[in-house]
Amino acid sequence: MHARANYLKLGSQKGALIIAAPRRDLRLLRVAARPEKLMLRKPSGMLRLKALLSRPAAAGALRWHGGHHVVGSFSARETGQHDEWDRRDWRQRAFTVGIGGPVGSGKTALVLQLCRKLREHHSIGVVTNDIFTREDCEFLTRQRALEPERIRAVETGGCPHAAIREDVSSNLAACEELTTSLSPPPEILLCESGGDNLAANFSNELADYTVYVIDVAGGDKVPRKGGPGVTQSDLLVINKVDLAEAVGADLGVMASDAERMRGDGPTVLAAIKHGKMLDEIADHILDAAHRASHRGTGGYAHAH
């Protein structure tokens, strides 16, 4: 259903209410709907208002969720934030690391390497996303990344970004089930998105910390193209640096463009398959998980 240029879309989707009204009446909708969050975006010059009603409402809460045309700012990111962690009950869902990026950038390879590195001293769980198959889940199981019961697959059936941002219910259910069913319960969950474009980034309803993976084979122009994945992930990984010369990518250009686009946001140039810079990536994740565990309720820091 298409809305006219000056109106908001009306409809419902997976427990969310899409409310239609003129732009000038946004203030009235905020009072009437009293949603926990209002999500705005501007596709084709229109505004779309999405009121999430799945949890108790917080009156007047208004949040800009970016759009496919928005470059974004690292300082305005939603994940990796103490105020979000303060509201979390880690006993319901463990610290969740969202790992996103384009098809073939090395997301599954990163998940495999992180499992191998962290599993000896930390309790880990994994949720993979594929559109029509369980391919990544089956790959990780064959590679014995973790015990099979610690790996879950979500078949999104559509655009991968929808399952990590617009409707995260399937991923939330998988993460929560892993947290409450495993013994010992996971300290960290790795949630791998299906391959998507530079606009795809995790909602903070699902991810507490985000890693976005791009690779040199996409060209050294990718970091400066921006998008929420590049600019607002908590950690940007530029992967396959060992192939830079073969594909004609300038790592210096990629590093400087990433710094310009991300400001204070950390970037790691890595060759994940070969373990290059894996320790640094793991350290970023562990540091965030440790800081988060001192906040909220039921974190492992409180149990020791």
Give the SSE layout.
Blueprint: E1 11-13, E2 16-18, H1 26-33, E3 37-41, E4 48-52, E5 63-64, H2 82-85, E6 95-100, H3 107-118, E7 124-130, H4 135-142, E8 151-155, H5 160-166, H6 169-181, E9 188-192, E10 209-215, H7 222-225, H8 228-232, E11 235-239, H9 244-247, H10 251-262, E12 267-269, H11 278-293
Parallel strand pairs: 3-5, 6-9, 6-10, 7-8, 7-9, 10-11, 11-12
Antiparallel strand pairs: 1-2, 2-4, 3-4
What does this structure look like?
The protein is of the alpha/beta class. The chain has two domains: 11-65, no CATH class; 76-303, 3-Layer(aba) Sandwich (Rossmann fold), CATH 3.40.50.300. It has helices spanning 26-33, 82-85, 107-118, 135-142, 160-166, 169-181, 222-225, 228-232, 244-247, 251-262, 278-293; strands spanning 11-13, 16-18, 37-41, 48-52, 63-64, 95-100, 124-130, 151-155, 188-192, 209-215, 235-239, 267-269. The strands form two sheets. The protein has a seven-stranded parallel beta sheet with strand order 8-7-9-6-10-11-12, sandwiched between helices. It has a five-stranded mixed beta sheet with strand order 1-2-4-3-5, with no helix packed on it. Residues 1-70 have low confidence and may be disordered.
